[in-house]
Amino acid sequence: MLEEVSISRVATYGEGPQRLNGLRHINFLFGTNGSGKTTISRIIADPTAYPNCAVIWRGARPLEALVYNSDFVDRTFTPQLRGIFTLGEVENDTLKRIEDVRAKVIEIETQIGTLKTTLGAADHSTGKRAELRALRDAFETQCWEIKTAHDAHFSEAFTGLRNSRTRFCDRVLEEAGGNQAVVYSVDDLKIRAQTVFAEGVTRLAAVSTLGGQDLLDIEQEPVLAKKVVGKEDIDIGALIRRLGNSDWVRQGIRYAEGPGSPCPFCQKPLDEELLSKLNAFFDEAYLADVVAIARLEEAYRTFADAILTKAEAALASGSPHIDVEKLRPLCERLRTLILLNKGHLERKRKEPSIPVTLEPMAEPLGAVASVIEQANREIARHNALVDNLVAERKTLVAEIWKCLTEEKKDLIAQYTTAKSNLDRAIAGLSIGIEAKAQALIGAQSTLAELERQVTSVQPTVTEINAILASFGFSSFWLTTAGDKQQFYAIVRGDGSDARETLSEGERSFITFLYFYHLIRGSTSASGMNVDRIVVFDDPVSSLDSDVLFIVSALIKRVLGEAVDGKGRVKQVFVLTHNIYFHKEVSFDPKRQQGERRSHETFWIVRKTGNITIVEGHQKNPIRTSYELLWAEVQNPGRSNLTIQNVLRRILEYYFTILGNMDKDAVIAKFVGRDQQICASLFSWINDGSHNFADDLYVAADETTVGRYLAVFKQIFQTTNHGAHYAMMMGPEEAPPQDDAATTAAELATEVVQALPDMEGALVASESA
Q1: What is the pTM for the complete model shown?
Q2: CA dihedral of residues 381, 385, 386, 387 (deg, nearest 10)
Q3: Runs of H (alpha helix) within 120-234
Q4: Which residues are within 8 A (CB) of 299 and not within 5 positions of it... i.e. 6 or more apart?
Q5: Is 215 exposed, middle or buried (0-12, 13-18, 19+ CB in 10 A)?
Q6: In this predicted model, what pLDDT tens digit does every residue of 439-449 receive, in sequence order?
Q7: Number of structural domains, the chain?
């Protein structure tokens, strides 16, 4: 049966869906004309015609829906009504075969419903489909975390996907399944992305390399380690060698102006022979070594200055690929060592006889050169990217996706495995449903064939005509018509067509009777043995009170069948705007204090601001004026000024109008003050309930009201109508159940059943 009906964006229903949920076997809906009731019946009749509305069936097993509404009346009331086939006299073995096949149909339908429930709804809100959606939603969230974590650096790789979780997730699965790119680290990809994805990117100039081999070669020059001195075979050479002052003598001799000039060492006239010996001591070999030392010093300064200039240029280049923090201390160290070596060479030039060793420059030069070379490699890669930017971007995007999917390969594998399992389960369920559907078609075909052998339209004609006759409709009746007598015609006594001359009430009544019998039959020779739900939408329009009550009685039979669960009717909806019909058809003596029973629901359909809303109620929301009077008595916050009038009206309706009891006999059952109060109530009834009473009874305090209520209760108890008092006041007021009480309870039930008539009496009394 139906568990829920959702209505939105149709007729007067707004955007937000109105839901009839928690539906039971019997469902009563009350609403005024134009409130939106018929829309509900139309949705139940054909949900597919209303794409913005939905119905949910228990066990995903749809039942046939028979709907009586204005559409049904217009569709049915034609010159010839389609005949209603019902089972005729059937042999026991044939009936058993029909029941067996029907049981098989129900079994297969139940199995299909179970499979569909397990599979889930088409909107993926339940079952395995819901599991698949939940799995996908969770995976999309996890994939989106990848995008969030790397979007700042790899946004270009995510172009077209950054605003859609679904598309991003699809791309992750696509890349995980087919990306063959090389795997690089995220940090490496970030560096490349800065170039490849940068706006207006251009080529970069390479950083000048240091060179430095010439500088290293000078370190190996032999003259630096050589003691450069004069010619040793000169007799003065032994003295100079012994004194170790060759460099001092060489520097001083430059100041000798010639023979006879002052000696630069002793200031005596310089002897020509001595001058000749000194000059001979510093021969050409010596002078060549001195010149070589001077050239080495000059060359070292030139090469070293060039290297320092290049190092400074590298620091100041601003290249994004130069590690300035690493290069700066290396350059400072290089500068320091060069200064030391310049000092060594200067000393060698001044004192050629002293061997010197230069500070080794290979390691500091190599350190600086390594930083520059690494920068140039990055610059070369950058320039290669710039030269082939389109291809590089494509390659980088592929490598980014490969890196990210490799990082999440375990997560992706878990998802794909779980999805594969669910896909197989869903496919298996779908195949099972299809197989069961084919089996159902076969079983239904067999059942239809058996029913066609034993069905007839005549029994329905006989029953409807009998009901028409019993209610005084003798001027027309139904008869079979058509070539095969498979239709019905409405005829007069002379056989003429009566359809066009029927009154509105007659038309409504015969159409309802047709629908009532259709519930137990079918318009084809098969199909009367299927489970179904029934909807009655305002079935008493244009009917007089007598026909209204027979319609109510027939509907209550259908309600009883739905509650018992033994027939084909599994669920009933009753929609009406008629308060008397609603009270009649919904009356249940077993219902306590209006509380709904476990098999029923109550709803109000109302229009607010041209928008229809549907409200569920725990109690029957439609009450008669008589019940409202009792509700005032039950209310602890009742008004002391009006309660006497309420009590008098209840006594008038119950004892005088309905019960026709002797008021004097009732008054005689009391004594003293209570008799006076009782008499005042009944005498006021006789005077007319709209006259002013004297001050004694108008100005009532709490004590007086309490006394009135006590006497009011005693009136019912002393007349053996305590059961009615208890029923109207609640179970806590229930009196002991003796025979008299039982008789009174039966009378009370009859009174409540007559409440609609009583309502009319109340209105008449109010108007008097």
Answers
A1: 0.47
A2: 100
A3: 127-154, 165-178, 186-196, 213-219
A4: 214, 218
A5: buried
A6: 988 887 887 67
A7: 3
